[in-house]
Specification:
about 375 residues, 3 helices, globular
Length: about 375
């Protein structure tokens, strides 16, 4: 048995890992594997499973995430971005410890494909959509882990738990902190990347476009020394959306792009209108609700909430509250989940509000 200090030393010696983040054990995850509820999508993005408020491992998971946000940053020194994906119940509506650990985080990347555990269609369509939005250009393949013949999830794991990744023999590393949305319309947008190969890098290219249907423009990147390369995307007017990717060529002739699925997948950012970005007094707004109608899971996307507490409720036709979905600050991605499977079929009103205002949308349960 190794002490925590000995474990950290081994990780540093054999893998070069200088910071090893240890989190408190979740009460109902019997195998204590982080891949049952969390997936690292890139250097600064975490896909994290979300339980209903106060249910199962939800409270401890949220405490762990709060600790990460307070004490740890990405390799770029930036806060980790969280993308939420629902943890789903058993057919009877139970969560661990009274149900299996049904998770969409326990997926695996194989080149340009994501193998994703699936369970029941009424939930799977949402899980697949969130993965596709988070990883544009990747092929998402669902594998049923909950059917009667091959109930993989009952063995306390899914796709990632029963596979082993084998790295490429001759890797070419491209590390880049993607550009954020900006109000800049005058100065060019600088793209910096760390590009490395054992034979050295012969050249690097930046590809960008404001319309992926029209192809990409190519810009040669400048060698800044110490494996750092740089190039610029020309400034664009407010309202533009820029898509881009990076290509590196090694002295050996090996070529690599990042994202790995480029040009089908890309990084992107928006050029915002500063006048439209000023705060207003209208409060939070419902951007999207899907699927609608729904038989069970409902995904609610909200904008304009800022750091204020937000109340999200569901009322019936008589205005009576039938579900309290959210009371507190929104997650950074503005997304909240609700399971309507326990409600009677019919029409409901989704109400999102804070002290600044409210937004209402009709929801149908079938």
């Amino acid at each position: 048995v190794k002490t925590a200090e000995e474990l950290l030393d081994l990780m540093d010696q054999f893998m070069g890992v200088e910071e090893y983040v240890l989190m408190n054990t979740l009460p109902y995850d019997g195998i204590h594997h982080i891949d049952m509820h969390m997936k690292l999508l890139d250097e600064e993005t975490l896909l994290v499973g979300e339980f209903p408020v106060g249910v199962s491992d939800g409270p401890q998971l949220e405490a762990n995430l709060s600790e990460i946000a307070a004490d740890h940053v990405s390799v770029f020194g930036s806060p980790y971005e969280l993308i939420r994906i629902p943890m789903i119940p058993s057919t009877g509506g139970s969560y661990p410890p009274n149900g299996y650990y049904r998770t969409y985080a326990n997926a695996i990347f194989i080149n340009k494909t994501i193998l994703l555990p699936t369970y029941r269609e009424e939930y799977d369509t949402t899980g697949i959509r969130i993965w596709q939005e988070a990883m544009p250009g990747y092929k998402v393949v669902g594998i049923d882990c909950d059917n009667s013949d091959a109930n993989i999830i009952s063995a306390s794991g899914a796709i990632h738990c029963i596979t082993k990744c084998i790295g490429v023999e001759d890797p070419l590393l491209i590390r880049h902190q993607r550009l954020d949305d900006t109000y800049e319309t005058v100065n060019d947008y600088m793209v910096d990347a760390y590009i490395r190969h054992r034979s050295g890098i012969a050249s690097a290219q930046l590809f960008w476009t404001a319309d992926t249907t029209q192809g990409y423009a190519s810009v040669g990147m400048t060698d800044m020394g110490d494996n750092n390369w740089s190039a610029a995307i020309p400034a664009h007017p407010a309202g533009s959306e820029i898509f881009y990717y990076i290509e590196g060529t090694a002295n050996s002739g090996k070529v690599q792009v990042r994202p790995l699925v480029a040009p089908d997948g890309w990084w992107h950012f928006r050029v915002l209108d500063i006048s439209a970005g000023l705060p207003d007094a209208e409060g939070p707004s419902i951007v999207e609700v899907y699927p609608n109608p729904t038989s069970s899971l409902l995904v609610i996307s909200v904008d304009g909430a800022g750091d204020e507490r937000v109340s999200i409720t569901l009322t019936d036709a008589l205005g009576r509250q039938v579900m309290n979905i959210q009371q507190g600050r929104m997650h950074k991605d503005g997304r909240v989940f609700a399971d309507l499977s326990g409600l009677s079929d019919g029409a409901y009103l989704l109400v999102v509000q804070n002290e600044q205002g409210r937004s209402v949308q009709r929801v149908v349960k079938r």
